[in-house]
């Protein structure tokens, strides 16, 4: 959905709430030219106990950690960002929302070294349903293996959620959708399975769950962590440092994506090859149901930051 189709209101920008249309930065901002910014994607859910942000503390931890390799020092304390986000949701009267905090080098000069460029910090929130579509949560998505490879951690930090490197994901998604698929899967530089453009991957085989390890060039997804804990609590063995070959995808019993936007989305086909029965598998369904039960009930409470 385009922002033009939404009833948008305000954005928190550098300590102030400003009208959505006035949340602007200079065209010569360092982050615009070189991708020197870090961000998070977070969801607020309308739980049985009221609106609550899912694993906000973990997202903040990753936001600050992502800035470290780029020497981005976010000029606000965690409590300030938390208070700003809670007030923003209240101002916008949002019971459920997607939240986007971002910090990037702003306007001062355009050498590669950001030098004295100030760090601009902003938080926006808006309604956003299932990223890959509501129907996809039930029937699954059709995925293709991208011709683009995921970069290695000795090229760009793979465990930092950085704006610039997401052009890698953009290329993969553009290729997949242009070819008629819902989403892509990227292999790493060694030809092993990495992740989706904006999702982590899980594979089910013989009743056990495998997910490519962080050493395979993957982001340490917050929803990935949640799915691992959910699956283990349901009694499943989870191999969270797996190396998954391309060939293993086609013979998997089940595959599914996880992510803040994608939540828990089954994969129906890879390169037109049906996965398992070609629809949502029973283990994926059980994990998905438990995940949505958690975000509906707001339990465990330590995973949620409530608006009130």
From TrEMBL:
<dbReference type="InterPro" id="IPR043131">
    <property type="entry name" value="BCAT-like_N"/>
</dbReference>
<dbReference type="InterPro" id="IPR036038">
    <property type="entry name" value="Aminotransferase-like"/>
</dbReference>
<dbReference type="GO" id="GO:0052655">
    <property type="term" value="F:L-valine-2-oxoglutarate transaminase activity"/>
</dbReference>
<keyword id="KW-0032">Aminotransferase</keyword>
<dbReference type="GO" id="GO:0052656">
    <property type="term" value="F:L-isoleucine-2-oxoglutarate transaminase activity"/>
</dbReference>
<dbReference type="InterPro" id="IPR043132">
    <property type="entry name" value="BCAT-like_C"/>
</dbReference>
<keyword id="KW-0808">Transferase</keyword>
<dbReference type="InterPro" id="IPR005785">
    <property type="entry name" value="B_amino_transI"/>
</dbReference>
<keyword id="KW-0663">Pyridoxal phosphate</keyword>
<keyword id="KW-0100">Branched-chain amino acid biosynthesis</keyword>
<dbReference type="GO" id="GO:0009097">
    <property type="term" value="P:isoleucine biosynthetic process"/>
</dbReference>
<dbReference type="InterPro" id="IPR033939">
    <property type="entry name" value="BCAT_family"/>
</dbReference>
<comment type="pathway">
    <text>Amino-acid biosynthesis; L-valine biosynthesis; L-valine from pyruvate: step 4/4.</text>
</comment>
<comment type="pathway">
    <text>Amino-acid biosynthesis; L-leucine biosynthesis; L-leucine from 3-methyl-2-oxobutanoate: step 4/4.</text>
</comment>
<dbReference type="InterPro" id="IPR001544">
    <property type="entry name" value="Aminotrans_IV"/>
</dbReference>
<protein>
    <recommendedName>
        <fullName>Branched-chain-amino-acid aminotransferase</fullName>
        <ecNumber>2.6.1.42</ecNumber>
    </recommendedName>
</protein>
<dbReference type="GO" id="GO:0052654">
    <property type="term" value="F:L-leucine-2-oxoglutarate transaminase activity"/>
</dbReference>
<keyword id="KW-0028">Amino-acid biosynthesis</keyword>
<dbReference type="InterPro" id="IPR050571">
    <property type="entry name" value="Class-IV_PLP-Dep_Aminotrnsfr"/>
</dbReference>
<comment type="similarity">
    <text>Belongs to the class-IV pyridoxal-phosphate-dependent aminotransferase family.</text>
</comment>
<dbReference type="Pfam" id="PF01063">
    <property type="entry name" value="Aminotran_4"/>
</dbReference>
<dbReference type="GO" id="GO:0009099">
    <property type="term" value="P:L-valine biosynthetic process"/>
</dbReference>
<comment type="function">
    <text>Acts on leucine, isoleucine and valine.</text>
</comment>
<dbReference type="GO" id="GO:0009098">
    <property type="term" value="P:L-leucine biosynthetic process"/>
</dbReference>
């Amino acid at each position: 959905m385009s922002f033009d189709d939404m009833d948008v209101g305000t954005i928190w920008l550098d300590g102030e709430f400003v009208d959505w249309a006035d949340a602007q930065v200079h065209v010569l901002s360092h982050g615009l030219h070189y991708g020197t910014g870090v961000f998070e994607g977070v969801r607020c859910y309308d739980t049985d106990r009221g609106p609550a942000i899912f694993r906000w503390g973990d997202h903040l931890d990753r936001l600050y950690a992502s800035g470290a390799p780029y020497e981005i020092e976010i000029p606000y304390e965690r409590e300030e960002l938390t208070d700003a986000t809670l007030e923003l949701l209240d101002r916008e009267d949002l019971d459920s929302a997607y939240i986007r905090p971002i910090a990037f080098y702003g306007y001062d000069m355009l050498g590669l070294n950001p030098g004295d460029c100030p760090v601009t910090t902003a938080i926006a929130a808006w309604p956003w349903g299932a990223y890959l579509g509501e129907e996809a949560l039930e029937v699954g998505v059709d995925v293709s293996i991208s011709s683009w490879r995921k970069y290695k951690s000795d090229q760009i930090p793979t465990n930092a959620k950085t704006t610039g490197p997401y052009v890698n994901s953009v290329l993969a998604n553009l290729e997949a959708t242009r070819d008629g698929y819902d989403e892509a899967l990227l292999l790493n530089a060694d030809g092993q399975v990495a992740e989706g453009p904006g999702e982590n991957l899980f594979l089910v085989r013989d009743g056990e769950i495998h997910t490519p390890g962080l050493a395979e060039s993957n982001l340490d997804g917050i929803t990935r962590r949640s799915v691992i804990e959910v699956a283990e609590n349901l009694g499943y063995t989870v191999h969270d440092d797996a190396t998954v070959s391309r060939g293993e995808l086609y013979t998997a019993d089940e595959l599914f994506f996880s992510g803040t936007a994608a939540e828990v989305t089954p994969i129906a086909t890879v390169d037109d090859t049906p996965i398992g029965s070609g629809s949502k598998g029973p283990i994926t369904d059980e994990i998905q149901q438990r995940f949505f039960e958690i975000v509906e009930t707001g339990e465990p409470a330590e995973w949620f930051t409530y608006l009130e």
